[in-house]
């Protein structure tokens, strides 16, 4: 058994570079929620490690102390994967455990815990650039070689890891959590007024990228012509998706489109709470945080079968084949026109979301830190 460096607490170095990504996405949200909940574990001393930035990121910022290594991100990642240098301890000093919270695998003297959010790039190489594919594949091989434990947010990702050659005995499922605070009616009304959302709306939240399957959602909206319904799209622009061209099919349909871009967590909660239905037809997810966030606000959900979103929404959402826009449109129409169905889904969504507190995520994460020291 490895002895901790301090008898009172464990010093855990955690990578936090996602906070500086142009599109932080679910990976940053997940580690942020985990770090906040780990405050209730006083035996842990978390130390964030980043590349050289010189300042904190705008918007979401790490809630733990952060130490910088000398290299900027691209050089640091390349050096970690090609040269296995510099060790993370150059920024932090001695550590008991290192937690790599994304696919960049730092060299370290300490036991390594690795989070793998998904392996979508293995199923579809178009989900990443040529450089990205090379980087992700190298990180996956290093994780198989060096990580004592691999944390995944869903059974779907666990299955992907096993198929990719990871030892199933080293995999631990650690689902993400969700903020359980429900937006008030006043907050929802104010947000609707702010964005001129006068009619019932179908909401999508996520980065604009091919994997999110927005083309199917736009096509499905044609089934709602005459329903006095709008489409609200929330999230930053990503890559390889011409959303303007896709939205042209809704011209003249009577369906209004509101593109709101990135929004804060508080505004997002109100947008979820005000939606008639939340639709997330993603082709592949490691977890599907927006589904859980919508359910936490008591919003009826239509989402994809065949990926991790089916696990999150199990029994509390309508699951459809995301490649079948006709079925997707029929599901949306049924929620919008059947008040009892919508009410039943809303009640089940609230109950389902209550099963995902951040405290459970933190407990399972802390247990992994202790396990690798045994």
Give an overview in words:
With 374 residues, the chain is an alpha/beta fold. The chain has two domains: 10-177 and 357-371, 3-Layer(aba) Sandwich (Rossmann fold), CATH 3.40.50.2000; 185-353, Rossmann fold. 39% of the residues lie in helices and 16% in strands. The strands form two sheets. A seven-stranded parallel sheet has the order 3-2-1-4-5-6-7. Strands 10-9-8-11-12-13 form a six-stranded parallel sheet, with helices on both faces. Helix 1 (25-37) packs across helix 15 (358-371) and helix 8 (214-221) packs across helix 13 (325-337). The longest helix is centred in the middle third of the chain and has 17 residues, at 130-146. The radius of gyration is 21 Å and the shape is globular. It starts with 9 loop residues before the first strand and ends with a helix.
Give a short synopsis of this structure.
By secondary structure, the protein is of the alpha/beta class.
Radius of gyration over C-alpha positions, nearest whole angstrom: 21 Å
H and E order: EHEEHHEEHHEHEHEHEHEHEHEHEHHH
The total count of helices amounts to 15
Anisotropy-based shape: globular
Main sheet specs:
7 strands, parallel
Task: Catalogue the unreliable spans.
Answer: none
CATH class designation of the largest domain: Alpha Beta
């Amino acid at each position: 058994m490895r002895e901790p460096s301090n008898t009172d607490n464990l010093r855990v170095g955690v990578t936090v570079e996602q906070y500086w990504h142009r599109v932080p996405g679910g990976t940053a949200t997940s580690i942020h929620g985990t770090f906040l909940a780990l405050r209730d574990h006083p035996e842990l001393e978390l130390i964030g490690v980043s590349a050289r930035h010189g300042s904190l990121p705008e918007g979401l910022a790490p809630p733990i102390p952060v130490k910088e290594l000398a290299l900027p991100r691209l050089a640091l990642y390349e050096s970690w994967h090609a040269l296995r240098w510099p060790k993370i301890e150059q920024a932090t000093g001695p550590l008991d455990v290192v937690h790599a919270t994304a696919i960049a695998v730092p060299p370290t003297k300490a036991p390594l815990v690795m989070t793998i959010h998904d392996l979508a790039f293995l199923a579809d190489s178009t989900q990443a650039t040529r450089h990205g594919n090379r980087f992700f594949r190298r990180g996956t091989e290093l994780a198989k070689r060096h990580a004592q434990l691999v944390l995944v947010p869903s059974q779907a990702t666990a299955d992907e890891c096993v198929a990719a050659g990871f030892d199933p005995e080293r995999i631990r499922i650690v689902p993400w959590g969700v903020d359980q605070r429900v937006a008030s009616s006043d907050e929802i009304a104010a947000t609707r007024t702010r964005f001129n959302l006068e009619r019932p709306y179908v909401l999508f939240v996520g980065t604009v990228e091919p994997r999110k399957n927005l083309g199917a959602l736009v096509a499905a909206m044609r089934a709602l012509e005459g329903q006095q319904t709008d489409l609200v799209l929330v999230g930053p622009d990503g890559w390889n998706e011409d959303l303007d061209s896709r939205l042209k099919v809704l011209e003249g349909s009577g369906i209004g489109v509101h593109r709101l871009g990135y929004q804060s967590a508080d505004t997002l909660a109100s947008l979820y709470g005000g939606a008639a239905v939340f639709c997330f037809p993603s082709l592949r997810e490691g977890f599907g945080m927006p589904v859980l966030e919508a359910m936490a606000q008591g919003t009826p959900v239509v989402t994809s079968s065949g990926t991790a979103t089916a696990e999150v929404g199990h029994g509390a959402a309508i699951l459809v084949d995301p490649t079948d826009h006709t079925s997707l449109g029929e599901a949306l129409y049924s929620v919008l026109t059947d008040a009892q169905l919508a009410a039943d889904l809303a009640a089940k969504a609230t109950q389902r979301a209550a099963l995902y507190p951040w405290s459970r995520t933190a407990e399972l994460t802390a247990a992994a830190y202790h396990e690798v020291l045994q």
